[in-house]
Design brief:
single chain, 229 residues, alpha/beta, Rossmann fold, Arc Repressor Mutant, subunit A, 2 domains, five-stranded parallel β-sheet, 8 helices, 21% strand
């Protein structure tokens, strides 16, 4: 059974979401402050974490920072409705997705299932041992691990998803709409900057190639391309 850690200090909302998720087949544990949530998430054993931004003892951003120090577990953040700053900060710090509060439980379930589909070890395969290579990037879909120029990359689940799409389509321009559907599991919404934020973080982790350029190039008004030369 899929294990979800729900971290929110709104006890009534927590109880309602936990009940809904349980009916939908999830095993749910709850924590009601950021410090407890970060500690439990970092211990492992969870398939996905739902993390509120506004939490006592340790806010959601600091909790996420602690989680990312030891774990790549997918994290969906609950943000204030209409607060773009929270969404951007969360994505920059390694969140995989976000959902504004108050959230629809049905949409939450859909988002969680999309995340879990993407992080499944059955997500993709290649020839032979399943590895994929393009330029200086090497991916192993079965373990969802990646190397850049022979050095291991520390990627979030969504960053890995994006890189895998770009590697599979190396040399071709991949539109933002395609990246959103394949890496985030949802259609690209107007004014949605999630893809740009994730790609920006991915570029920083990759650094520059031998020619001094980022291996991920922007094609203005269209999308992104992984260069192979």
């Amino acid at each position: 059974m899929t294990r979800v850690l729900l971290v929110d200090d709104d006890l009534e909302l927590c109880e309602m979401l936990a009940e809904y998720l349980t009916v939908e087949g999830f095993a749910v544990d709850t924590a009601h402050d950021g410090e407890a949530g970060a500690a439990r998430a970092s211990q492992g054993g969870y398939d996905v974490v739902v993390l509120d931004v506004m939490l006592p003892r340790l806010n959601g951003f600091e909790a996420l920072r602690r989680i990312r120090q030891t774990s790549s577990v997918p994290v969906l953040m609950l943000t204030a409705k209409g607060d773009e700053v929270d969404r951007i900060v969360g994505l920059e710090m390694g969140a995989d997705d976000y959902l504004p509060k108050p959230c629809n439980p049905r949409e939450l379930v859909a988002r969680l299932r999309a995340i879990l589909r993407r992080t499944s070890a059955e997500h993709g395969d290649g020839g032979g041992d399943g590895s994929l290579q393009a330029g200086g990037v090497s991916l192993r879909p079965a373990s969802r691990t990646a190397d850049w120029q022979g050095e291991p990359l520390d990627l979030t689940s969504t960053e890995y998803n994006l890189l895998e799409v770009l590697v599979r389509e190396a040399g071709r321009v991949v539109t933002k709409a395609e990246l959103s559907e394949q890496a985030l599991g949802r259609q690209l919404a107007r004014y949605d900057r999630s893809i740009d934020m994730h790609v920006s973080k991915l570029r920083r982790k990759l650094g520059a190639g031998p020619d001094g350029r980022s291996p991920i190039q922007t094609v203005r008004g269209v999308g992104y391309q992984l260069i192979t030369e």
